[in-house]
Amino acid sequence: MNRHLVIMAGGIGSRFWPMSRPENPKQFIDVLGVGRTLLQLTVDRFGKDFKPEHVWIVTSAAYKEKVREQLPDIPEENILLEPCMRNTTPCIGYVAWKIRKKYPDATLVVSPADHFVVDTQEFRRCISTGLDFVAGSSNILTLGMKPTRPDTGYGYIQSGDVASSEKNILEVNAFREKPDLQTAKQYYSDCKYNWNAGIFMWDASTAEAAIRMFEPEMAVLFDKMSESFYTAKEQEVVNELFPQCNKISIDYAVMERLAGKPQQLNGQKGGVYVMPSDFGWSDLGTWGSLYAQTSKDQNENAIIGAENISMIESTDCIVRASGQIKMVLQGLDGYIVADDNGTLLVCKKNQEQRIKEFSETLKK
Amino acid sequence: MNRHLVIMAGGIGSRFWPMSRPENPKQFIDVLGVGRTLLQLTVDRFGKDFKPEHVWIVTSAAYKEKVREQLPDIPEENILLEPCMRNTTPCIGYVAWKIRKKYPDATLVVSPADHFVVDTQEFRRCISTGLDFVAGSSNILTLGMKPTRPDTGYGYIQSGDVASSEKNILEVNAFREKPDLQTAKQYYSDCKYNWNAGIFMWDASTAEAAIRMFEPEMAVLFDKMSESFYTAKEQEVVNELFPQCNKISIDYAVMERLAGKPQQLNGQKGGVYVMPSDFGWSDLGTWGSLYAQTSKDQNENAIIGAENISMIESTDCIVRASGQIKMVLQGLDGYIVADDNGTLLVCKKNQEQRIKEFSETLKK
Question: For residue B342, which residues of chain A lie inside 8 Å, CB to CB?
């Protein structure tokens, strides 16, 4: 079994302010109030099929200690530190080149650090089936989430012909960016469209070949960096060369360019595929999605975190207290109430897309 | 000038929770956000006519250090410490007996520690006129506040015949407890009724004689305690005997019994009088009254205290931040938002009479 798990854990989670901040973003927080951070829950979710030496975390240099603390079993050399944010292609390039140097035949599943899944068993079945599908091929497999509403906050994957009916895998015709509401409603009524969850699988060699094809300058940089991998000079070299990488997402750089147009990669045809999946998923990208995933009291209030919160004649609220302050909340209907690090946010739940704007109204 | 100022500063201010708490009640807090506590503002208001040796603070033993800190000019022997709360008659008995022992001819003005006055000059004029009126007599003069609304939260003073047209002083026919709304409206439309502000003036000898007449057992206790006043044993003796005092307000014990029925006190007829006054007054008894007395932003929000509060699409709120947390408040209309000592209250302004109930919903 040459399966490796890559977790991208470099985000700053600005939409969950004030709970999530650049110095402590949401993947490192027990957002759900269950005693485990989102990063820990992510590793837990993939299960024991991935031994610690096969789990790789790519994050910002600033979060190294948090990762070490929260995932003490992961070897230090498996924690890759980006000196700056360059979106997902350089992130994946770094880890793919590094894994391949030690494990030339590795097959990777790449996952965000901060998502939520209801049915772990079905999730693991999908991952296992998907890794079987891509292993030894030049194909890329994405997971498509069956939409439960015409959401305008997700990208959509448009599927085409069936590639494997046994494995429930289809070709990808195109990736569609976050749509307007009318378009989202069209997608929602058309079974060809699934949400793009940002989880995908490919061989490390496919990742390297695809980046070499579509971002050749970046590939040259990783070829150079690769000489230092697993040596004492690695971080120094990465710190010097990584910032020269083009700032581009893997969706733009590879997925969209390859969708519907398979190419020769590593001497065999490689394309992009999708496995429609239905294991109960949320990217926990917003307070609203967190509200949807947490249990409610009899007044439809979701109360997460601290114990000492008193709700009086309040309904339909999501309250996430740090435990640093007690709260008595009376007469609130449909609000987000969150405190952290000495900052309190109270805002209408339906205004949550403006939280970044709200956070910027405070003096620094 | 034998004028003495007595400030009753023993309240616990539960209606201003969480800002005001038994361990730090509102008289010791800069409630208005002006840089001075209510107690300091009260002493300031009376002005330099009262030299520090003539200012007396009666408070709970628990607050001694707060008083010393906030009023460093007041001699320590002028800070009287009640071992327990016994309402205003024992409070006034203690200070009247004590002052009289050292200053037999003292004239007292007795004031709560936590009220608000707009026109300090007019206030001082009223106090000075009133002290002239009672000095050397056996009369008691109360200040009546001209009502600005049919308030059901105040007691009312019903005036009778004119006693001094020059000084604008009338006899008191009766004290009326907090009325229902219908009665309050009658009072409001009748110029005979004024709010009872709890500020009154009398000679120390009148105070002693009145308490001796109406609460003779209490007078005996103070006669005993008096032997220890200004000695090292004072506090010990007070701690032993003060708790034996009847728990009764000065309004019940003296004012109501004397109103309309003058008595011989100290060999001359003494009665209760009222000076209708109009200097802009609030007892700051509730968040609503604090809201009324503070400046508002363009959206009718009163923001008191800390600087780092951001109001977005919020109207008609009163926000009192401790400075311990920053706040972003969006979409709130008509709320009280207050934090202190690690506790946050958000509640509808029109529910403020339930704040004590709200505070009790938190675990201790």
Answer: 324-326
Largest CA distance in chain A: 66
* pLDDT tens digits, B240-280: 999 999 999 999 999 999 999 999 999 999 999 999 999 98
B341 burial (CB, 10 Å; 0-12 / 13-18 / 19+) is: middle
Cα–Cα distance measured from residue B180 to residue B270, given in angstroms and rounded to the nearest whole number: 31
Among A83, A91, A1, A85, residue whose Cα is nearest residue A47: A1
pLDDT at B356 over 90: no
Closest CA to A282 of A108, A109, A151, A130: A151
C-beta atoms of A343 and B331 within 8 A: no
pLDDT at A363: 72
- 3-state DSSP assignment of residue B206: helix
Quickly list DSSP for A97-114. HHHHHH-TT-EEEEEESS
Residue A219 has what pLDDT?
A: 98
Give pLDDT tens digits for B297-329.
Answer: 999 999 987 678 999 999 999 999 888 889 999
Q: How far is residue B257's CA from residue B263's CA, in Å, rounded to a whole number? A: 10
Write b or e for each residue in A69-90: b if 16 or more Cβ atoms lie within 10 A of its Cβ, otherwise e: ebbeebeeebbbbbbeebbbbb
By Cβ distance, the residue of B329, B342, B354 closest to A346 is B329
The pLDDT value given to residue A18: 87
* Residue B267, φ and ψ in degrees, nearest 5: 80, 5
pLDDT at B363 over 80: no
Q: What is the CA radius of gyration of chain A?
A: 21
Neighbours of B213 (CB within 10 A): 17
B-contacting residues of A 315-344, CB under 8 Å?
A: 324-332, 335, 337, 339, 342-344
Chain B, 248-307: which have a CB under 8 Å from a chain A CB? 307
Angle at B55 between CA B247 and CA B278, to 5 degrees: 80
Contact list in B for residue A343 (CB cut-off 8 A) is: 325-328
Residues 130-189 (A) with a CB less than 8 A from some CB of B: none
A18 prior amide bond cis, ω within 30:
yes
Weakly modelled stretches of chain A, pLDDT under 70: 306, 364
**pTM for the whole structure:** 0.78
Q: Which of A307, A328, A359 sits opposite B345 (nearest CB)?
A: A328
Q: Is the peptide bond before B18 cis (omega within 30 degrees of 0)?
A: yes
Optimal mutation site among A307, A325, A345, interface B, most CBs of chain B within 10 A: A325
A295: left (phi over 0), alpha (psi -120 to 50) or beta: beta
Q: Where are the beta strands (DSSP E) in A52-168?
A: 55-60, 79-82, 107-112, 116-117, 140-145, 156-164
A-chain residues near B312 (CB < 8 A): 347, 358, 361
State how far the Cα of A217 lies from the Cα of B194, in Å rounded to an integer: 86
CA–CA separation, B26 vs B71, rounded Å?
15
User: Cβ of A364 under 8 Å from any chain B Cβ?
Assistant: no
A5-29, pLDDT tens digit by residue? 999 999 888 888 888 888 899 999 9
How far B21 CA sits from the closest chain A CA (Å)? 15
- The predicted pLDDT at position A306 comes to 67
